[in-house]
Amino acid sequence: MAGEDGAMVYSVLTIYLCLIFLFSAISKLIRIRSFVELARAYEVLPSPWDRIFACLLPFIEMGAVVLLLFRQTNVWGLLILVGLLSAFAWAVGSVIGSGRVITCGCYGKFMDAKADGFTLVKIASLFVVCIVLIWGQTPGAGIDVRVLPFIVGAMLFLFTLLAQKIWMSHQNILAGLQKGGKP
């Protein structure tokens, strides 16, 4: 991404990814036992690998965030996130394909969102952001430390959380209507 506008977009998207994955990691760590059970419900890894992966995941996410912050290592952080997002998409896709309904665990127990099509769209969107950052990287690219990129990145992060909450509310209303009761 060349020029000042490209540097601004690069910074905004990097800050957005950092906030998403830092929030995700902290939410999982706060109630790690609950998150381990959420991860086991996917039934995509054999025991004990499911528990090991679930315990390591928040630290991998935080490590990727730290790598994103430095221009010498940001591509490694992006590659780790691409790998994680690919694994998440495979796991959610397998749950959807099986017809099971489970909590996605994207934000630990902070949000009890279902592993569904919305989750896949969210994963795909984050994947695209990572690919854009990898392809748009210029030598010495790093985060612009001015206020505007932080504000816009934080707004994108909050918009993502808001969209998740709205989707969850929509699902709850539909579930209430299907039961014939009030939502």
UniProtKB/TrEMBL annotation:
Pfam families (UniProt xref): MauE
Domain Methylamine utilisation protein MauE: 8-135
Membrane disposition: Multi-pass membrane protein
Places the protein is found: Membrane
The keyword Manganese belongs to this UniProt entry's keyword annotation: no
Stored InterPro entries: Methylamine_util_MauE
Residues that span the membrane, as ranges: 6-30, 51-70, 76-96, 117-135, 147-163
Keyword line: Membrane, Transmembrane, Transmembrane helix
Protein name per Swiss-Prot or TrEMBL: Methylamine utilisation protein MauE domain-containing protein
